[in-house]
Each structure stands twice: as structure tokens, then as C-alpha cells.
Amino acid sequence: SAVISQKPSRDICQRGTSLTIQCQVDSQVTMMFWYRQQPGQSLTLIATANQGSEATYESGFVIDKFPISRPNLTFSTLTVSNMSPEDSSIYLCSVERGTGGTGELFFGEGSRLTVL
Amino acid sequence: AQKVTQAQTEISVVEKEDVTLDCVYETRDTTYYLFWYKQPPSGELVFLIRRNSFDEQNEISGRYSWNFQKSTSSFNFTITASQVVDSAVYFCALIRHGSSNTGKLIFGQGTTLQVKP
Fold first, then answer.
1. Choosing among A102, A107, A109, which should be mutated to test the B contact, i.e. which has the most B CBs within 10 A?
2. How do residues A65-101 score in pLDDT, each as one tens digit?
3. Closest-CA residue in chain A for B112?
4. Does A5 lie at the interface with B, CB-CB under 8 angstroms?
5. Which residues on neighbouring strands pair with residue B103, listed in sequence order?
């Protein structure tokens, strides 16, 4: 199993500001995934972060709003830019165990953002 | 399009009762994987089980059991003799087979289970 650490675990932010969430994995992984969980809602994939290339965003998410970095095989950051109250969510980093899209994802504990 | 439906928003039981969490999915793919995750109050998602579309055998792991029925597109989860520590949000999820779908879990809305002492 992978150990995934996220920082911050929670934060309260002001409207219009940006916040960067860090995700550290204890082993090298090819792909890292960022999910969003809005209050009382399910999880939605934001983007896939590949080392050495641009992140791949899902429909409804754009790089200007959620820029992602992936400087090496164990680390990624997600920035939530120009935040509004609608961005209040839990943001979760995840990695896959195994290969081939079988989906057994390990998740970090998430970063709970509240935007005032 | 793929979709996962968990019709039960909240369930409340008393400790030691059995409880079944329902999951119905939609997909046109013949190869896919189904999952259950547990999200305790700490927020981390804990992987419980993965089942591929060609394996309809039911599975039992301790107090947990899963019933996969392709005929009804359902993948239900039963907790026997529930305990307070089972209180959490439970998510059912689906992923399409293939490397291009890596990481692209489609989650249901989740069922909040409260087990009272």
C-alpha cells in the first residue's frame, strides 16, 4: 500500500486568494490523481498529473483555475486559484496500486478548504 | 455514459444489526471494475474491495460481504453484526477497463451509515 501525505489538512481562505495543496507519496508512481469532494457530495476527478508532462484535465476543470505541478515521481501540487465559496471542498490526492487502469486507488486524507 | 447510483442517502442502525448498502451501476462496457470505499470522519478513503465484471462470485471478508449481480447491474454491500466503528460514508465506484481510464473512478453519491450503540 502507498502512504500519501497531504498538506494542509485544512484551511480557511478568503475569497479571491489562491492556495496550493501538496501531495507526497512514499514511493515512485507514474500518475497521480486529484479529486474534489464538494460538501455532502461524491468525488469527482479533477485531473491526472504525469511527471514530465502537462496535467490532463477532466471536463469542467481548467488549468487556469487548478494549475498542477508534478516535479518528480513522488510529489505533486494542486493550486486552487482565485477562490470563491463554491470552491469549498475536500481535495484528495490519489495514486493507483498496480497498473492497467484497474482502479485500486489509494487516497490521502484530503485537504479540507473553506472559502469565506 | 457510466453512472453509479446509491439510492440510500443515510442509514441508521443499532449496533449488531445487519445492514445492506445498495449500489446500482450503468455502463455499456463489457469489461469494468466495481469498488467499495469507506470514508470515516477523518476523511481518508479506505479501499474495501474490487470486483471485475467477469467475476460474479460473492465475496465475504469477516463481517463484510458483497453481492455482485450483473443481471440487475447491482453490487450490494452487507455488514453483518454492525459496530459503531462502521459508522462512515460508503462509496460505490466504477471504472472502465483500460490504461486510458487509469484513475478515472466514477463514484456514487455515497451512503452515510450511522451505527448507534
1. A102
2. 999 999 999 999 999 999 999 999 999 999 987 665 5
3. A40
4. no
5. none
